[in-house]
């Protein structure tokens, strides 16, 4: 009981508690993950169009992109964005006479890094979903004279989304876990805040346990959201027995 009381005081919202800081850091984790996931959706959609293109060069570039980004460690991608972006900003600053180091914004670095990495996985999800769409439905839309954009908006996109949601849910969970790596750039997200608190109080177990609980809560809520999205997009669809 003494441990529980001490633990609740430590992570509480009182004057000596770290509760608000942990919740703020959790919100930062969710924020950078959402931005990275959305950026990955945009980039992944473009890569999917390239994969399905009739031009061999575009297909080759898309395959290279997905192969490289899925094969390179995510932490290395983060470092490349951070130091590469900082070098670029330093070059721009040098044009105006500034000689110091200009660091790449940590949140922007995380968004870009998570975006380009998750895009490689989302592109494969979208391509697989497109391959699952019955050819007859697409041919029917063409047969009635539907133009490409209305065909994509009314037929292709809803059907692809229906098949892609389970895979996108898995990709989201991957992005959420990868967001912990952004702490190396100085972004105070959940893991980084837990490290700071553990170092200040010399009670690492309590704070890392709290981080585990918060990650699991976000994961649980995310699973509910994706399950409801999947149920909504499959309303009226006859399932195989």
TrEMBL record:
Tell me how this protein sits in the membrane.
Multi-pass membrane protein
**UniProt keyword Membrane present:** yes
One example GO MF annotation: transmembrane transporter activity
Q: Which residues cross the membrane?
A: 20-49, 76-96, 102-121, 207-226
Could you tell me which PROSITE patterns the record lists for this protein? ABC_TM1
**Chief location of this protein?**
membrane
Classification via CDD domains: TM_PBP2
User: Cross-referenced SUPFAM superfamilies, in alphabetical order?
Assistant: MetI-like
Where in or outside the cell? Cell inner membrane; Cell membrane
Q: Can you list the GO cellular component terms from the UniProt entry? A: ATP-binding cassette (ABC) transporter complex
Q: Which InterPro entries match?
A: AA_ABC_transptr_permease_3TM, ABC_transp_permease_HisMQ, MetI-like, MetI-like_sf
Asked if the Swiss-Prot or TrEMBL record annotates the protein with the keyword Protease, the reply is: no
> Domain ABC transmembrane type-1: where?
26-226
Which keywords label this protein?
Cell inner membrane, Cell membrane, Membrane, Transmembrane, Transmembrane helix, Transport
Domain of life, per UniProt, equals Bacteria
Q: Which family does it belong to?
A: Belongs to the binding-protein-dependent transport system permease family. HisMQ subfamily.
Please give the NCBIfam families that the UniProt record associates with this protein. HEQRo_perm_3TM
Name of the protein described by the UniProt record = ABC transporter permease subunit
Q: Which organism is it from?
A: Rhizobium vallis
């Amino acid at each position: 009981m003494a441990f529980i009381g001490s633990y609740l005081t430590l992570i509480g919202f009182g004057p000596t508690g770290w509760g608000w800081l942990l919740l703020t850091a959790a919100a930062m984790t969710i924020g950078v993950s959402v931005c990275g996931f959305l950026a990955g959706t945009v980039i992944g959609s473009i890569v999917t169009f390239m994969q399905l293109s009739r031009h061999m060069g575009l297909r080759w570039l898309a395959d290279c992109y997905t192969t490289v980004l899925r094969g390179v460690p995510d932490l290395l991608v983060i470092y490349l964005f951070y130091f590469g972006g900082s070098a670029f900003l330093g070059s721009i600053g040098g044009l105006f006479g500034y000689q110091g180091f200009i660091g790449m914004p940590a949140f922007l670095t995380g968004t870009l890094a998570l975006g380009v990495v998750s895009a490689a996985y989302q592109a494969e999800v979208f391509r697989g979903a497109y391959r699952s769409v019955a050819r007859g439905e697409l041919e029917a839309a063409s047969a009635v004279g539907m133009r490409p954009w209305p065909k994509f908006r009314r037929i292709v996109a809803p059907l692809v989304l229906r098949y892609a949601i389970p895979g996108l849910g898995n990709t989201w969970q991957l992005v959420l876990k990868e967001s912990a790596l952004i702490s190396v750039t100085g972004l105070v997200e959940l893991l980084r805040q837990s490290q700071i608190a553990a170092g200040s109080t010399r009670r690492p177990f309590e704070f890392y346990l709290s981080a585990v609980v918060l990650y699991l809560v976000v994961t649980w809520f995310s699973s509910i959201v994706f399950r409801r999205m999947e149920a909504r997009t499959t309303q009226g669809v006859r399932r195989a027995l």
